[in-house]
Design goal:
Radius of gyration: 24 Å
Strand order of the largest sheet: 3-2-1-4-5-6
Structural class: alpha/beta
CATH class of the largest domain: Alpha Beta
Strand content: 5-15%
Helix content: 40-55%
Number of domains: 3
Shape: elongated
Order of helices and strands: EHEHHEEHEHEHEHEHHHHHEHEHEEHEHE
Number of strands: 14
CATH architecture of the largest domain: 3-Layer(aba) Sandwich
Largest sheet: 6 strands, parallel
Number of helices: 16
CATH superfamily of the largest domain: NAD(P)-binding Rossmann-like Domain
């Protein structure tokens, strides 16, 4: 089987590479010539553990190819995956122009039956727009070619995407015909050998499943952050509360860690898009609006704790930051809480020195010379009036405390990810604040 994957961003490149690893012939297509040229040289546009090795192996085996022109690929493939970006419009709704352009390209150049499967996260009803766009182009050509539109949302976690794709907990597929179902079943068969986890449904339900999943996870995070803020006021320990409620099998332990807010390419965008979709139908998503409001406020909590400690006078203070990416094991800076915190610190007149194991280059592109970039985690703490922990990279979990005690001007740590215990920090002489 041969497939095309349009879009070589996070979802597209992981999808194409993992299918190639299972023996499928894959051509990854992107209109960005520079990105394709780099991929041909083995230079990836994203960081994801294990991905570079897989890309290299499958490219050298000729199972994975890269191209800039989808039209020349269509005669050879059975399925076209659309994995292009759906950035939020100014009102928060998903911008579908790239998705529709892929559909129009397929309609202009297809000469045989194809399944066009949407991998991008798109609002309910997008498949109808894709189908309409393809049919319009076929009508312009005066040809009658059968095709199916499917929805195959991804559920990949950045930092663990390869494992998630190769050993999925479920594969959701929305189809309209038995022919499309059989083709998608054949494609995913190698991933289902040990446990059949394919869930077939109608297309609108598949489109909604992706949004509902991300909205639920975002809700758990904001709920726990709300509880954490109340715990601080009433004198309760949110970590003990988390253990207590997470032991209930109806609730579970995952996504109950309090912190300084969620970010990334999915949760913020998808929550906004789902709210906007509901607005179009005259229905207010009251819970999700609260989820978004809590998260926006939560990104300020680390700064607020620091500002309170210094009695609202941060001007001239030197502040170190550990962690910039929105989560560990990625260089993704989209909607990262660190950007909000840095902006607040600069507005307050602080000098900011940062360190992240992977995301430094991404932040340099965004921040330029407005902040200082440290050589390592301890360099970020030299002569600082406070150290802020924003992303829970593993190497931050057991630092050499004697080095920090020696290099920090003031032993103040504001922990946005609750990595340490108050009692131990106090015994070492640190003023320690967590969520």
């Amino acid at each position: 089987m041969k497939i095309a994957v349009v879009g070589t961003g996070y979802v597209g490149l992981v999808t194409g590479t993992c299918f190639a690893e299972m023996g499928v012939e894959v051509v990854c297509v992107d209109v960005d010539k520079r990105k394709i040229d780099n991929l041909l040289k083995g230079i990836l546009p994203i960081y994801e553990p294990g991905l570079e090795e897989l890309v290299k192996r499958n490219f050298e085996s000729n199972r994975l190819q890269f191209a800039t022109d989808l039209s020349v690929c269509l005669d050879d493939v059975d399925i076209v995956f659309s994995a292009v970006g759906t950035p939020p419009d100014e009102d928060g709704s998903a911008d579908l122009k790239y998705v529709i352009e892929v559909a129009r390209t397929v309609g202009r150049y297809m000469n045989k039956y194809l399944v066009i499967a949407t991998k991008s996260t798109v609002p309910v009803g997008t498949a109808k727009l894709v189908k309409k766009a393809i049919q319009e182009e076929l009508d312009k050509r005066g040809v009658n070619i059968a095709f199916d539109v499917a929805s195959n949302p991804e559920f990949l976690k950045e930092g663990a995407a390869i494992e998630d794709f190769m050993k999925p907990d479920r594969v959701v597929v929305g189809v309209e015909s038995e022919r499309a179902r059989e083709l998608m079943e054949t494609l995913y068969a190698p991933f289902m050998r040990s446990d059949y986890k394919m869930i077939f449904m109608d297309v609108p339900s598949a489109e909604m499943t992706k949004y509902a999943a991300n909205a639920m996870l975002a809700t758990r995070i904001s709920f726990m952050n709300d509880i954490a803020n109340l715990c601080q006021l009433v004198g309760a320990d949110v970590n003990r509360v988390r253990d207590g409620i997470g032991s209930d099998p109806r609730i579970g332990k995952r996504f109950l860690f309090p912190g300084c807010g969620y970010g990334g390419s999915c949760f913020p965008k998808d929550v906004k898009a789902l709210i906007k979709t509901a607005e179009k139908y005259g229905y207010p998503m009251r819970v999700l609006q609260a989820v978004e409001d809590v998260n926006d406020d939560q990104k300020r909590v680390v700064f607020n704790n620091l500002n309170k400690y210094y009695s609202n006078d941060l001007k001239g203070k030197s502040i170190g930051i550990w962690g910039l990416s929105f989560k560990p094991e990625t260089d993704d800076m989209r909607e990262a809480p660190s950007l909000v915190i840095i902006d607040l610190l600069l507005q307050a007149g602080c000098k900011v020195k940062v360190y992240d194991p992977i995301a430094m280059e991404e932040v340099k592109h965004k921040m330029g010379d407005t902040i200082e970039f440290a050589q390592d985690m301890y360099d970020a703490a030299v002569d600082v009036d406070a150290l802020l922990i924003v992303t829970e990279w593993k190497q931050f979990r057991i630092p050499t405390w004697s080095v920090l005690q020696k290099v920090m001007k003031k032993k103040v740590i504001v922990d946005g990810r609750n990595l340490f215990r108050h009692k131990e920090m106090e015994q070492m002489g640190f003023d320690y604040f967590s969520i």
